[in-house]
Amino acid sequence: MANLLITQTCVRSCPYCFAKKHMDDNDREGMMNWKDFIYLVDFLEASGDRHVSLLGGEPTLHPEFPDYIVYLLERGFSVNTFTSGIMNEKRLRRLERVLAGANPDKISFVVNINDPLKSNYSETERVKCFLESFGHVSSPGYNMYRPKFEMGFLFDYINTYGMRKHLRLGLTHPIAGKKNAYIRLPEINQMIETLLSYEEYFIRFRVKAGLDCGFPLCVYTDEQLGKMYKISGGRLTFGCGPAVDIGPDMMVWCCFPLSDYHKKSIYDFNNMQELLEFYREKQMNIRTEVQGIFEECDTCHWREENMCDGGCLAHQLNNFVNEAPVRMPEVYQV
Amino acid sequence: MNKMKHILVCEDNEELIRKFSFEAIVVKTKNPEHVGHIGRVVEETNKVHCIELTIEDNLSGLNPLDDWKEVPLHIKAPRMGHFLDFVRVRHLLAPLSVRVFLNSGYEETYTDLQLMSSLGINCGLYFDENPINWKECTDLMDFVVYPKVPRATVEPFHYIITEYQPKETINFSGVYFNNPEKYLHIDKNENVALTAENLTAGKYLFNGVEQIQNIAENKAYKAYFQTWKKKFHKISACSACPAWRICGGFFENRLESNPGCREAFSELIDAADLHYNNKEKENEKQPQLCQL
Predict the structure, then answer these.
(1) What are phi and psi of A111, to 5 degrees?
(2) Is the dihedral of CA A125, A129, A132, A137 positive or negative?
(3) pLDDT tens per residue across span A173-227
(4) In angstroms, how far apart are the furthest CA atoms of chain B?
(5) Is A74 an interface residue toward B (CB < 8 Å)?
(6) CB pair distance less than 8 Å for A34 and B149
(7) Which pLDDT belongs to residue B143?
(8) Are A38 and B115 inside 8 Å of each other by CB?
(9) How far apart are CA B213 and CA B210, in angstroms?
């Protein structure tokens, strides 16, 4: 599933934002137009893909956002939108009206929710308004950027607004060449402890945790792995592969933390398979140089068995930013 | 019955239509509520080739009627209108045998046709006195001739691509029922003309529908088919244009005020050539070994 960025501007400025570098380096006013959008939908359909994620910035800021969703539904796609849920009353009511008859199995939102105690009041109220309308087709997303954090409010939201019982958990990564808040390697253990302190909540409220990419296997103890296995509904992976983001300027890249790494034009590829192959090969090149985020990754049994990809590639590239260019040239193309 | 088998293009006039029998007829109407009825009138003793409905409002404001299912229909609308409203109309048009034409003079038309085609509605451009955005037109051509996925057709590009022969000319006016080799235009006073423009301008071949059966003997009719040669008596933009074979000087009148057709149609002829060669390769018989 590809991520289409239909806007490059956001209503928030989260300290961990992994799209920050991309948005700083590009035209914030840039929005995806209809013709490019149709091309991309054709591109995905030709690749046999009928799922698409809409991202930004904040995708709902795009004036044609409801139209784009309807167009995708008319083409037989299912649409997932990553949003803050923050929008004014007028936009919300319009979205409500347009999506009133839509098949709830075909649309979903991942609402990125920050701790209300650390957010401003009006922002939190807007998110609540959005969830009142679209909670039933939304699942919460939360980005862990500090080793200690509060996430009880997420379970409150799920219950209050009838949200889908799937919590997308993102591990924040460094953006090579940029300063953002992220979990340092020595902090990962503490972050996992904090996460697992909510195990009872996950079980009691029957919420499944969906871990985003970049978590290496070895940061868990066996006991933690067992708990994680349970709360993730048995879907526990330790990979780091190309997510594929496509911008309004029709440029494509591996994922946000690697948004400058071998950025290409979508017109360089005939289909998603070619595109994924290209980025997998580039990732392999880095992994030939450095196996993973820890020194131990070089000789790790689990990595050799392809059970773990050695953690987030952005972590690895970030280590090379300030060193002398002694490695393969690909490693420095940031 | 006309021996040349011309398809007759008539106004929405029952009295006129009832004068014909065993003809294929195109009826032009501006009344959406008359489409089904006039179709039935034609079918009494003739055959409906198509009903051409011209509307003044945007397509998205149209309310297709149940009895439209019985007839092949061309709808000429100035614009598509708002997308979300179009989606409602799209579901009503989908079961019909319909092709929608939008005015080439509006910027958004070229994107709207991509939208309509990608959502399965056969469509096309129609040209009037408004200037054509040739860059947008070329983008639309590329969309039509190099599709990534199957789509509905967009005219006249689809017609040109599929009818193209390397050593023959194409007259895509047929898409608009305006090719004198196939269509004759008749008004309620039984004036007969070769094209819709001639009919409007009063340039008639003759008066009286009974003369249609002898049209092959008509001097003006025979002369018309020699007129294209005159274009090559002197050097002009059209006579030196590599794409003349597929446009036949369709845009000759706007060459000075709205140039750009040469580049656009030259690109299209290259695409048509490629399409033709690919099709030929597909049709080539593969040598086969004897069956053992």
Answers:
(1) -95, 115
(2) negative
(3) 777 666 777 777 788 889 999 999 999 999 999 999 998 887 889 989 999 999 9
(4) 71
(5) yes
(6) no
(7) 95
(8) yes
(9) 7
Give me A82's structure tokens.
Answer: 């990553």
Query: How is residue B31 written in tokens?
Result: 């009344």
Cα B107 to Cα B79: distance, rounded to the nearest angstrom? 10
Is B151's pLDDT higher than 60? yes
- Work out the number of other CB atoms within 10 angstroms of the CB of residue B122: 19
In chain A, residues with a C-beta closer than 8 Å to the C-beta of B90 are 74
Location of structure tokens 């109309």: B89
- Angle made by CA atoms B167, B171, B174, in degrees to the nearest 5: 140
Q: What does chain B come to in residues? A: 292
| Residue A54, phi then psi, degrees to nearest 5 | -100, 130
- Whether the CB-CB separation of B62 and B45 falls below 8 Å is answered with no
Confidence of residue B184 (pLDDT cuts 50, 70, 90): very high
Contact (Cβ atoms closer than 8 angstroms) between residue B97 and residue B109: no
Say if residues A85 and A95 touch (Cβ distance below 8 Å). Answer: no
Q: How many helices (H) and strands (E) does chain A have?
A: 12, 10
Please state whether beta strands A2-5 and A51-55 pair in parallel, antiparallel, or not at all (unpaired).
parallel
Q: How confident is the model at residue B4 (pLDDT cuts 50, 70, 90)?
A: low
Contact present, B149 and A42 (Cβ < 8 Å): yes
Phi, then psi, of A170 in degrees rounded to 5? -105, 135
Ordered domains of chain A (ranges, CATH): 2-332 (3.20.20.70)
**How far is it, in rounded angstroms, from Cα B266 to Cα B259?**
13
**Residue partners of B193: CB distance under 8 A and separation at least 6:** B184, B185, B186, B199, B203, B204, B205
Distance from C-alpha of A72 to C-alpha of A54, rounded to nearest angstrom: 11
Residue A208 is encoded by which pair of tokens? 């499944």
Cβ(B71)–Cβ(B97) below 8 Å:
yes
Is there a contact between A42 and B149 if contact means CB atoms under 8 Å apart? yes
Q: If DSSP codes are grouped into helix, strand and coil, which group holds residue A31?
A: strand
A264 touches chain B (CB under 8 A): no
Exposed, middle or buried by CB within 10 Å (0-12, 13-18, 19+), for A315? buried
Contacts of residue A287, Cβ cutoff 8 Å, sequence gap at least 6:
A309, A310, A313
CB A38 within 8 A of CB A86: no
Query: By three-state DSSP, how is residue A197 classified?
Result: coil
What's the pTM value of the predicted model, to 2 decimals?
Answer: 0.91
What is the spatial distance between Cα B8 and Cα B179, in angstroms, rounded to a whole number?
11
Radius of gyration for chain A, computed over Cα atoms and rounded to the nearest angstrom: 20
Q: Using the CB atoms, write b or e for A252-275: b if 16+ within 10 Å.
A: bbbbbbbbbbbbeebeebebbeeb
Q: Residue A34 is nearest to which of B111, B119, B149, comparing CB atoms?
A: B111
Task: Test A42 with B148 for CB contact under 8 angstroms.
Answer: yes
Question: Residue for token digits 């594929």?
Answer: A244
Q: Does residue B41 have a pLDDT over 80?
A: yes
Which residues touch B270 (CB under 8 Å, ≥6 apart)? none
